[in-house]
Structure formats: structure tokens, C-alpha cells
Amino acid sequence: MTHAVFLDHSSLDLGDLDLGALRDCFERFDVHSATAPEQVVERLRGASVAISNKVVLDATTIKACPDLKLILVAATGTNNVDLQAAREQGIVVSNCQGYGTPSVAQHTLALLLALATRLPDYQQAVAAGKWAQAKQFCLLDFPIVELEGKTLGLLGHGELGGAVARLAEAFGMRVLLGQLPGRPPREDRLSLEELLPQVDALTLHCPLNDNTRHMIGAAQLALLKPGAFIVNTARGGLIDEQALADALRAGHLGGAASDVLSVEPPVNGNPLLAGDIPRLIVTPHSAWGAVEARQRIVDQLGENARAFLAGTPRRVVS
Q1: Where are the domains of the chain?
Q2: What is the pTM of this model?
Q3: Can you list the residues of the chain whose pLDDT is less than 50?
Q4: Pfam families this protein is in (predicted)?
Q5: Could you tell me which CATH class the domain 100-282 is placed in?
Q6: Active site residues
């Protein structure tokens, strides 16, 4: 019997997704809203398929689940799975890929537009009654910037970076590509030292690794034009968060927005959550969360399960 267990269903489904096609892949399908570390082995007892978004499947857990044949990761990142232990036990690990591109690209442009139009400032001003107290028909207290004719720098030009580039170009922006640290040089990529002084806005769409951690620090922020914007919808550790907070307080940047922090959730605080930082927007790692994007994850989980059961595994990472 094909027995699958979804360990952290509520991390993906808010009650608005259709799990029918995924459920139909298995003879038995157990769904748990969330699973604590001490519950994992018991819940996977006898199961041949484990489905996890963020629940950790480490070597000890994997060795304690001899019936497992397939791990379906409901995300792209597989850092919650010990891939070496899975390989040693002959377990296939499949992930989901490209599901959030439209959602994250849209969120990136939304953040950039909010910075350029000073949307949070105007919203707060209206809520505070300042429009009602105005001596004319409008408020123009906060300088607004048009994106048309401005230059956008991209760090990361894969599927997601390419989608952001297309949206930016639709707004009339010129797009330049930056060279990522640790990658082979390319003629169409500019070094950070060349790129940063040229751009009016910078967006990040690259993985976090030893080469890219804190690749945007105080020195790099200082290279940006006065008034430039920076938007991060990739990983929090790409930017030195204290350096970004300092640059915003100093008034060097036109604004910054981040959908990610170095530690999530930020239970012990974060430099970017201080209440005195101007022109900063922080969203709670929600860029990927459009209902359409989350449904694509469910659909890909089903595709991966059916492919494995047919003997032709897909999106295999181990």
C-alpha cells in the first residue's frame, strides 16, 4: 500500500487549495497541520512517502523510517532534508521548482513601486488626517519618483530575475546585470563596483551561500547613488542588515524593502525591525504566497509522486 504523510500541511494550505489530485496518488494519505520534532518518526511509521515543507528530516529520523521510499519537499530548498542520509537509504528526494515566479516578481515590483511613490508615507499621512487639514486639493509632502527612464540593477538573472527584468522594462526601466560573487565571469555581467554606482534601484534574486552572504554591506551600499532603492525578495543574509539600517538612518538611500530576514521568524528581533528606520518596508516572507503559487506547489507534488510511482522520478535532488 502506498502510504503518504503530509507533515506540515498548514504551512502551505490556508484552506484555499485543492489537494484532490495529490490525495489520489496514494492509497492512504495522512494530513497533519503541523508536526513537532518529537512526533516525526511516529507519524512516518510505516509510510513510504513523506511530504514536508519545513519539517526537518535529519539522518536520525530517516534511519528510523525504513519504509520511506520518497520524500516530497513542498518547496525548492531542501536544507530541511539530510540528502546524504536519504541517498544511503535509497530514498528519492524531489522538490518543487519555479512555482512562485509570477508571485515573487509581482511582489518585487510592488515593493519597488511603493518605495518610488512613497505609498506607506502617504497612507500614514491620510490616516493621520493630514489630507483633511490640507490647504489645497492634494498632499505632495513626500517626493515621488518615476521608474521610467531609471536603471535597475539585478543580482541574479535566472527565471525569477528574468521575470523581474521583463516587468521593469515594461515600466520603461533600463536593466543591468551584476556579477555574483563566486560565479565565473561573464561579459554581460558587471562587477558590483561597476554596477552599483550606475543603478537607481537594485533588486536581489540569488541564492544565499558562502560567496553571497553579506555581499551587500556598508561598502557596497555606499557605492549606490544617493536616493537609490534596494529590494530584497531572495534571502535575508545577502545583505548586512545592520549596515542597511545605518544607511537608511543616514539618509543615503531613497528607501529599501525586504521580504526576508536573516532569521525567520525574527523571534529575537532584527536590526531592520527597529522603529526609527525611515523609508523601509518589511514584509513577512510573503512574496511567494499567492494562492496560484501555492496551488502550483500542490500540483507539482502530485506530478512528482505520480512520476515516482511510474518509475520515472522527476525534479530529483537526491
Answers
A1: 3-99+291-310, 100-282
A2: 0.90
A3: none
A4: 2-Hacid_dh, 2-Hacid_dh_C
A5: alpha beta
A6: 235, 264, 285
